[in-house]
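Hello Y.,

Per our agreement to keep a running log of every chain we model this quarter, I'm adding this entry. I've kept the format consistent with earlier entries: sequence first, then predicted structure.
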Amino acid sequence: MANARWSSRLTFIMASAGAAVGLGNIWRFPYITGQSGGAAFVVVYIICMLVLGIPLIMAETIVGRHARRNPADAYGQIALENKRSSLWQGIGLLGILASFLVLSYYVVISGWVLDYVYHSILSEFQPTPLITSAQAFDKYLANPWQMLLSDTIIIGSMIFVVTRGIKEGLEKTIYILFPMLASLLFILLIYALRTGHFIEALSFLFKPDVDKINGKTILVALGQTFFSLNVGFTTIVAYGSYLKDEISIIKTSIIIAVIDTAVSLLSGLVIFPVVFSNHLAPDSGVSLIFKTIPLAFSSMPFGNIFASLFFSMVLIAAFTSVIALLEPLVMLLNERLDWSRKKSAMIAGTCMWLLSFLTIGSFNVIKTFKIFGMTLFENIDFLTSNIMLPIGGLFVALFLGWRVKKTLAFEQLKLTDKSFLFRAWYFTIRYIAPISILLILLSSIGLM
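Predicted structure for the entry above:
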């Protein structure tokens, strides 16, 4: 895979944005925005994106393009080039492990979305009390075999795409799915504008409330910035290794961040007009997507049609993230064990399929089995999101900011070490990013 390259800057942007845009953009960010100060929070979030998100995207892309290897060996190679310990490859190994663990439950949730696409196409969503909608979802979770079937379909599709390589697999899939995602988002936005309580949603999302901006809100914005862009998963390192030398890392990083933020905000303008038109309370997460949304669409004109479009959009967002999360591990197996890409993808996918049984069982057959008061699914989610990813991101910043010569970065960014842009990026990576990520880590584990 060392010679594989994205065909163009657009391909890399769509692939990286597709990796970043996932379930969190749709079911978490809009709700947080509405509850945390509206437009005032958006301003804080954009500032966080500028001082943390974009510099970290640039950092991981620099590592990937310079080394053109799997994430673990990329960090190891750069460490050796700078006469540092090979233990720095642990950054890549940690990120690959985090990606694998997250993928083990992300495919299960993607399977839920797939099932809801099917149910909406069959017009099975009917106007009922919210408690009935919630009971229907709980009944669905109690059936491990149905969840396993949809989980297997998602994993099989993922393996099929990844085994076909960069050009025939990832590129062709992204070229189809990303424009579909944008088109569905636009169609649903028009629908929400014409049939939903759009003004009420605008007020919820964008009415500025400066009084809600405090230290806790800023930490929420920092955390959302960090997690939204897949920093620490090593997917950007993997995708960056296929980026052509002549393409600007700075411009592409900015565009990826803009797309990620735009999709998050527009998703809110799709969801909440429909929710408010049915006099339902705004919500987030699993409850919003699988309990509130089906009920909301069921009472709307042509509701099941647009519900199927909505869940198709969510499915595409989830699937583009899924294929990205598998890529770092496939690269590692391919390069370190000299396995073919097909063998690497099939073995990685099969292992992850087996691990996904734990997530499925956490909602039914082993839901009473708990560690630290949490199910196995909740433990994996907490470990990866609250501990592994912040630690990985922290070491990325420390590594490039303090253990690697500046030459590597300004050559990849095509800047001089005297330029304002490079100095701003380097200052951020050395000081602002480590402090910010440390605060995110402490907040995530409840120490702040």
